[in-house]
Specification:
Length: 345
Amino acid sequence: MRIKQVFYMRNIKIILSLILFISLFSENSFSQEREKLAQTGLKFLSVPLDARATGLGDAVTSLNMSSSAMFYNPSTMADLNNIALVSFGTTKWIADINYIFGSAAFNLFDGDYGIFAVSMVAVDYGEFQGTVFAPTDDGYIDVGTFEPKAYAFGIGYAKKLSEKFSIGGDVRYVKQSIGTAITDITSDGQFVSSDYKIDAVSFDFGILYKTGYKSLNFGMSVRNFSPEIEYEEESFQLPLTFKLGVSVDALDFFEVDKEMHSFLFSVDASHPRDFTEQVFLGGEYTFMKIFSIRGGYSFPNDEQEFTAGLGLKKDFSNYFIGVDYSYTRFGVFSDVQRFTVNIGL
């Protein structure tokens, strides 16, 4: 009993130290940018991707998200029971921008050495026509097309320090390329071109705390932390975001068969570097652990409105397959749809 108490107190001290460290680091990082809203770069890193998460209005900081936790709160991977979980999908974002993403988490030693994970995101912005100012009737000349791209590759880790506390983090290599562009024309009519691209390394951190009261969970995450990046003649930060979340199965307070019904309710509060503070609300009703229906809302927002989603999951003898879909109203822009497939072994 004495050994357990010492172990528990040690974990408490570790968690409190981590919370203090993340809080101080976040306050220091954000305090330098309070008057610089909307001045971040590589914004593709802040676009929500997973269909289950977006169906819940992105209020998932304290929810188990399998390998997709790499895009939200890495610490929630620590509860992985399968040997491996693979998640991949696509997001049709506004302005015909397409995202392809994937992640995989591995529990190689029954969790004794934690959970290891990898992730990737690829963005296709489409094809654009390049022009250069010239003394013609139109005032410009065509110089061909260019196709901007963006990528992110990550390696993550999560570990349960006790039955109640989990920590996690990941490091990502991020790259964005606008392509080769014509910047000038010489006096003899020759084009001068430049290759516009930039890369960086970013870090994410997360903590999950299970209170032990019903299914009440608390989560905290810091995403897209990196040094300031200099590009051409300007410098900027990545879209650093600090989130706190709480969730519970509301049916814990009623006498219902938990094998038949569950209703997760979650709330997140977000403090992004490049926008005002936001609140995210989400709900997910699941029937027989097979079919789920979801809804979410966040505020304040400029254009994004409510979100809704569906999920199906089928367990087999040695694996499971799940498919999720979400729909987001996006004001004057085209509505956003997301699909995600999950496979557990």
